[in-house]
Amino acid sequence: MDKHFLTPLFSPKTIAVFTGSKDRAAEQTPQARALAAALKAQTFQGKLLFLDIGVTGTLADLAKTRADLALIALPPLELPAALELAARIGCKAAIMVGTGIPANMAADLQRQASQNGIHLLGPNGLGMQRPSLQLNASCAGPLAQPGSLALVSQSGALTASMLDWAANNGVGFSSVVALGSHSGVDIAQVLDFLANDPQTQSIVVYVEGIRNARHFMSALRMAANAKPVVVLKSGRHNAGTQAAQTHSGNMGGSDHVFDAALRRAGAVRVRSFVELFSAAKCLASRYRPVGKRLAVITNGGGPGVLATDWITEIQLELGILSPDIAAELKPQINAAASLRDLIDLSEDATPEHYAKAVQAAVKDRNVDGILVIYSPKPGQDAADIARAVTHTQANKVKPLLTCWMGDSSVVSGRKELTNSTLPSFRTPEAAVGAFGNIASFYQNQQLLQQTPMPMSSQTKADVEGARLVLESVLAERRKVLTEMESKALLSAFQIPVTPTMLARSPTEAMMIATQMGFPVALKIDSPDITHKSDVHGVVLNLTNATSVRDTYQSMVQAVRRHQPDARINGVTVQTMARAHRGREICIGLLTDQPFGPVITFGAGGTMIELIGDHAMELPPLNQFLARRLIERSRVAETLGAWRGLPPASIEALEHILLRVSEMVCELPQLREMDINPLIVDEHGAVAVDARIAIDHAPQGLVSRFHHYHHLAILPYPSQYERTWPLSGGGECTVRPVHPDDAQMLQAMVKNLSDESRYFRFASTIKELPPSMLARFTLIDYDREMALVAVHNEQHIDEHGDVQVKQRIIGVSRYVTNPDQTSCEFSLLVADDFNGRGLGSRLMQSIMDVARDQGLSEIVGLVLSNNPNMLKLMRSLGFSVKSDPDDPDFKIVSHPL
């Protein structure tokens, strides 16, 4: 399990190179000549075999040739033959370098590669670089310097530009991957490898399009949980859906959806090529996520103020020295220096003054990061001050960014900073923005750790009743619910609504209003009218029967004048919400391509689109995510005490957001929704109007997750929680793993015997490295599953009180193989719980989950000298055979 399926691509020992015959050099493609030159420019640590698809010889001779990776740069008509030859010599991966391959031919090549068990990077890409192996399998330029930063790009031009920039800025790479269009190996698979690559400490991604949102989010979440990931995406201003049935639907295709997805994945998004370079500088310095308080040290007030303004603009905080630290620093710097907010060292600042100020900021707990600005002054040496800053080694403790302003007079200083790998910027705004990326990563990591369940712990919703409403509407070949149907759906999920009844005549409206009690509101009921107010289809605060009757008649006439073809079912009558102390909110749903359902929150009323207030979040939600969604909206500022009004009930809004999340998870038929306006005050919230558009549920895999496959992020699969008795007494709880289990899992591994650790990991590791721990605990519950057995243990603390502590005593796991039909498993049981039936129970449970997911076979590798594990596998009906590639292992498998 610990050897990634893309290892032959990224760490090949032998490479077969197909660049055409040397005798026909004139017929070689430009990419072939460039690739051959790139390979020969340095010494690859493995073995290179230059082959020609027209080579003659017997099959026996060919069978003796073996390679891990094929590099192919040939004319389009020769590509299938090269793939065929690569398969015959055992290649498990291939890179096709070239351009101009149409989509249909690319699909044929991918199909051919898949049938032969080859992972194909390309066609239409520039290839890949692995500097640590001295491998330049690309046409993207000279081999990059070795480093810890990985670059993944869907643009060859951007890849070449990034490498050119990096060469002049001292930035090295662990991997460079230029995917291009129509690549068989997609961006999700590359991220999946890099998440587990020990050479990679941080990742920069350029995205133009996403093939599969679920796979992309799964890989990105795992990668961002292990190491910082920064993403630049083009195409930020795509037009919205023109045929939207709701206000929220008009936001479809919005760039805000991609923002929401990246936040939830724990990654950071940048908006420009310049920002991407800035982020790369910080990532190359291996800065970890921190808070958002940035201290500014400067020798000039103007540059410091510019930095402060931008700190406020991008919603960071100025880090201000605490009084005791400031008092300690004051006698060590110029008397003219100011420590009130900025750390302004004055124009006469010396290298020593800078060093003392940096050291003070490092010690202060009120500071998360440090920006040092230097402006050229007569008699000062920019290089001396740069050396003083770098010698503090402050960057080992906190993010330290620098800005040497000017040009020719600060070149020597910038060179010192670059050589020390400190991020250096030319403007204060760029430096502050780069720190903002670091801070955003910390904030997004909090969102990443959330794994909500599909249903909240509140009163159970009437899901079956809601499905019946949708089925009846679809049976009538309608896709827009009436207001009464929409409110019935909301009521099924315990969302408060105003009483509403449909009147089909003026007299009926008058009678309904009299029974409800005045004042009332009348609204036109038509499946063809999206915005009622636009056609004079809403009248509020009617106080008597006569006005209701007259308003009904005039409303219907007005609507027919404005929209003659609209079908009119009648007019709904509803009691007026007591809204003079309330705020109007809109909670909505849109369906995005490719991310699926997205929940929106913002200001409501008739000016919703003009105001443009729509914070977004991908479902499922929990209380933490719901609260953050509210806080990101502009209308959040009005929810507190405002203009004499008491604060609105945030708890009521959270309740409704959680209920909407349940609706979205349980009802894949939902496409668009507006709850607008939702009136909220200090007493609670009520939905005054709602409009919902639906369609048939998309077809997907039949499993226990069958009604969640429409989500980009799967909810926590609580249905697999079980309590089991243990042989010999006691019990344990078996449940899917959760990100909070990381420390318990680490403790389990540390407490294992050396033999048990070796049998599981085939190594002598004493504990799990952070990247592996992240990989094991934050999973997507789709392509992989891990079940942990948790045991409650009692102990007496120092006060004599009984304390209960949870402990993980066993783990079973599977990861779906690239063929999407089989999976590979692992099993681990704590030494003191061996022989109590836990191993067989965990294996049977993980096999049940794999069956639910539609997988057909479960496979594992067991060390040949692990008799207990082999005995367990045979007792469960697994077949056992030797591994042809490694005699130290046995392959065990079982059909599902």
In the CATH hierarchy, what is the superfamily of the domain at 7-234? Succinyl-CoA synthetase domains
Query: Could you report the average pLDDT, rounded to the nearest whole number?
Result: 87
Q: Approximately what portion of the residues adopt beta-strand conformation? A: 15-25%
Question: In percent, how helical is the residue content?
Answer: 25-40%
Q: Low-confidence parts, pLDDT < 50 over ≥5 residues?
A: 701-705
CATH class of the domain at 7-234: Alpha Beta
Assign the CATH architecture of the domain at 7-234.
3-Layer(aba) Sandwich
Main sheet record: 8 strands, mixed
Q: Total number of helical segments?
A: 28
Specify the overall morphology. Answer: globular
**Quantity of strands, as a count:** 36
Structural class: alpha/beta
Radius of gyration: 32 Å
CATH topology of the domain at 7-234: Rossmann fold
The side-by-side strand order for the widest beta sheet comes to 29-30-31-32-33-34-36-35
**What is the terminal separation in angstroms?**
19 Å
Describe the structure.
Among the domains are: 7-234, Succinyl-CoA synthetase domains (Rossmann fold, 3-Layer(aba) Sandwich); 289-447, Rossmann fold (3-Layer(aba) Sandwich); 719-895, Aminopeptidase. The strands form 6 sheets. The protein has an 8-stranded mixed sheet with strand order 29-30-31-32-33-34-36-35, sandwiched between helices. Strands 7-6-9-8-10-11-12 form a 7-stranded mixed sheet, with helices on both faces. The chain is α/β, with parallel strands linked by helices. α10 packs across α16 (428-448). It is globular and about 95 Å long. The chain is built from 28 helices and 36 strands.
